[in-house]
Amino acid sequence: MIENIESMQKAALQVTVDIVVFTVQDQALKVLLIQRGVEPFRGQYALPGGFVLSGETLEEAAFRELREETGTEIVYLEQLYTFGDPGRDPRGRIVTVAYFALVPTDKAPLIAGTDAASTAWFAVSALPALAFDHAMIVDHAIRRLRNKLEYSTVGFELLPAKFTLSSLQSLHEAILGKALDKRNFRRRIEALGLVKPTKDMFATGRKPARLFSFRSRPGS
Amino acid sequence: MIENIESMQKAALQVTVDIVVFTVQDQALKVLLIQRGVEPFRGQYALPGGFVLSGETLEEAAFRELREETGTEIVYLEQLYTFGDPGRDPRGRIVTVAYFALVPTDKAPLIAGTDAASTAWFAVSALPALAFDHAMIVDHAIRRLRNKLEYSTVGFELLPAKFTLSSLQSLHEAILGKALDKRNFRRRIEALGLVKPTKDMFATGRKPARLFSFRSRPGS
DNA sequence: CCAAAAGTGTTAGGAGTACACCCATGG
DNA sequence: CCATGGGTGTACTCCTAACACTTTTGG
User: Is the pLDDT of residue B110 over 80?
Assistant: First the structure.
């Protein structure tokens, strides 16, 4: 730790949070981006984010920026990694704490945005050029999300309260970018015990599908 | 991202790095701590660390602080988590990027320290009270280390260039804090293919033990 | 010859993967 | 009646975990 005020001053830096917000729409994993209205990188897309205020935690800053910039209702937020190379921002030394967030498909706003020129969802398979080092941040976030899906339950948060197993499967397929075996998928989900059948059916295609919901706590 | 200089200034914070340095000595997982010479928390132990300078990356800051404060030769460094709650440091708003590091047993200095009052290794099972929120940071680091040991090769870095399988096993046991089955452990290590036998034997106890070394690249 | 650590195989259970057919419904 | 997505079971492989005895050496 530091031993005197002088070196503390010397080291004062800017701290931001940037959030990689994911949702799944039309069978594709998508990221929320904002088109910048000012230099640098004017006109290019960037992650939502902004400076951390003195009285708030890093998480609070992330929530606040999302609210202000996109009006998005987040259901999951997790710290990702901190990027702090000098030169990552042409305006000066800025350290950013990156988060990743999930929004349920049915709550993902098509547009919003208060202080940002324009916000839009982009499929991760077709991202535009990104400002700063945001391409690297998005890349980290995608890897983390895919990774977590294999050993945890992250991703469940992207669905509405009641859902079919087929929709859960296609959600996983969209995130992972590959097809999954139906029987193995259902067996694994059942073994996790995090989901329970409801009385309701969903009548979309031909045969009605059972709707499931999340079990809040483990145990029956 | 931010849109004007004014709010940038408003948000200027202090950024530090803190490093949880692990080694294994005497069958115990240990952490390097420094006794603070100044207020706040004067006399209490804290993690090595300090402020990030304007021209260096976060990693470089971590390496520099370790060199300056402890003279320790690190073989592994990984970013852990960023802690930034207001109030975590009584001197003001300080965001710290925590790292965890590993030092080989044979290179862990018993003492060192240039600008710190006194440095010492503490077994994680018997830590003193720590300054700031450092207890929480150490806790995160231990969980991460134990976790990584089960699905990766982190921890190998703690051994000298040539080592016996028994010493590798007791290293793992010290980190995990539990006993492992000798045959299963050897089978798993062999399956990983990261280790190869050398011609040398080690004659400590009664029956001499084969010395192994790391294979730098996968393949024969 | 004995104490102490080195070294070595087999079996059982669980998790993941590959694979194909019948069912219920709306049009 | 048929097209469409819903729903189900079995066999194989691989990884993990439990478990005990023989070998080599120094004293």
Answer: no
